[in-house]
Design brief:
Length: about 350
C-alpha cells in the first residue's frame, strides 16, 4: 500500500482503507451444530452440591458456634463470652445410649435379689391358707419378670373350685400378693347320710373344707338336678380348650332348685330332713302323719302347692285315709299313694 499524503484527514484515511482492503465478515454460525455441541458439553458437567439449599441450612453451616453475651449492668454494654460449640447428638448415638441403659437395667434386675419372689401374702381367705395356695402356685426363687399375675390368678381359680375369683399382684421387694374371694356354701349335698360337697347360691359345687352351719343339708337319693346346657368338663376332649373353659364357668346345679330349697327350709317343720328324689323332686316326711311329701323343684309354684297340700290333708283325714306318699310335683295333677 503506497504512503498516504500528509495533509489527509482521519476520515479520508478510513474511507481509503475501506476501498483498498476487502471486507472481512464473521461467518454465520451453524445453529444446529452449535446447539448439539452445547448439549454434549452440558452432559459432562458434574454437580457436587445440591441445586437448592435453604437459608436455614446455610446459616447452620456458617454459624457453627453459639455466641453468649452477658449484660454489663450499663445500658448498651454487654460482655461477650467465648463461643461454645453447638453439640448435636445423632440418632445412632442416641440409640446406642438407650440400648446401653436397658442392658444395665436388665443386668441389675437379674443380678439382685430385690426382684426375686421370696414371700407370699394371702388375703381374703377363710378356709384356704398360704400352704394350700403354695400347692397350686409356688414361685419362690423365680424372678418377678417371670411371673404373670393374671396367669397365676386363673390357675388358682381352676385349681380350687371353692374360689370365686382371685387377684394377684407383685410388690417390691420380692412379694407376691394374692387376694382370694371364696364361694359361700348354701347347701350341703348329703349322700348316704354323709356330706359329699357344698353348693353355693349360684349353683357351683366345691369340696367341703371344715364346717359351715349356714349350709342347709339336702339328703339325696341321686345326683343333683343339672342346669340347662351344663357339660361335665371332665368328659370334654382335651383338644377343645375353649369348650372346657366355657363349661367351667357354667353352673352345674339348676338355680331354680336352689331357690326352691331356700324357700322350703323356712316352711317345713324344724329338725325335719329335706330330701331330693330324682323322680319326685324335693320333699320331706310329715312329722305328724308320717307320710312322704314331694313338691317338685319349681320355686314359683311352692306357695300354691302348699295350699293344695293343706286341702288334700283335710280331705284325706275326713275320709280316714292314710297315704304313704302325696305328690304335688305337677301343680295341676296332684296324686297320693296309699299304703299297701
Amino acid at each position: 500500500m503506497p504512503p498516504l499524503p500528509e495533509n489527509i484527514t482521519r476520515a479520508d484515511e478510513v474511507r481509503l482503507r475501506r476501498k483498498i482492503e476487502p471486507a472481512r465478515r464473521k461467518p454465520i454460525p451453524n445453529t444446529t451444530q452449535h446447539i448439539a455441541r452445547n448439549m454434549a458439553s452440558a452432559s459432562h458437567v458434574i454437580t457436587r452440591r445440591p441445586a437448592y439449599t435453604s437459608s436455614t441450612e446455610e446459616a447452620s453451616q456458617v454459624e457453627k458456634r453459639r455466641r453468649m453475651y452477658l449484660s454489663a449492668g450499663a445500658p448498651g454494654a454487654e460482655i461477650r463470652l467465648p463461643a461454645f460449640p453447638q453439640l448435636r447428638i445423632g440418632w445412632r448415638v442416641l440409640s446406642f445410649l438407650v440400648v446401653l441403659a436397658m442392658a444395665a437395667a436388665l443386668y441389675y434386675v437379674l443380678g439382685t435379689n430385690v426382684f426375686t419372689v421370696s414371700a407370699l401374702n394371702v388375703t381374703g381367705s377363710q378356709r384356704l391358707g398360704t400352704d394350700e395356695v403354695y400347692e397350686a402356685v409356688d414361685y419362690r426363687g423365680y424372678s418377678m419378670l417371670e411371673v404373670e399375675p393374671q396367669v397365676v390368678a386363673d390357675h388358682l381359680v381352676a385349681y380350687y373350685p371353692e374360689l370365686k375369683a382371685a387377684a394377684v399382684n407383685l410388690e417390691l421387694p420380692g412379694t407376691l400378693h394374692v387376694n382370694l374371694e371364696e364361694r359361700t356354701p348354701a347347701l350341703t349335698w348329703m349322700v348316704n347320710d354323709l356330706p359329699a360337697f357344698w353348693i353355693d347360691a349360684e349353683g357351683f359345687p366345691f369340696p367341703i373344707r371344715g364346717e359351715d352351719a349356714q349350709a342347709y343339708p339336702i339328703y339325696a337319693t341321686g345326683g343333683t338336678p343339672k342346669a340347662l346346657g351344663w357339660e361335665d368338663p371332665a368328659l370334654i376332649p382335651a383338644d377343645e380348650p375353649e369348650r372346657i373353659a366355657a363349661a367351667k364357668v357354667h353352673p352345674m346345679v339348676d338355680q331354680a332348685f336352689i331357690q326352691a330349697v331356700l324357700q322350703l327350709k323356712n316352711i317345713i317343720p324344724a329338725e325335719t330332713r329335706m330330701t331330693y328324689d330324682t323322680v319326685h323332686g324335693l320333699g320331706w316326711t310329715d312329722p305328724t302323719h308320717g307320710w312322704q311329701i314331694y313338691l317338685g323343684t319349681q320355686p314359683e309354684e311352692i306357695a300354691e302347692k302348699l295350699n293344695i297340700y293343706n286341702h288334700a290333708v283335710k280331705a284325706l283325714l275326713d275320709k280316714n285315709l292314710q297315704p304313704s306318699l302325696i305328690s304335688l310335683e305337677f301343680l295341676h295333677a296332684p296324686y297320693y299313694r296309699l299304703e299297701q
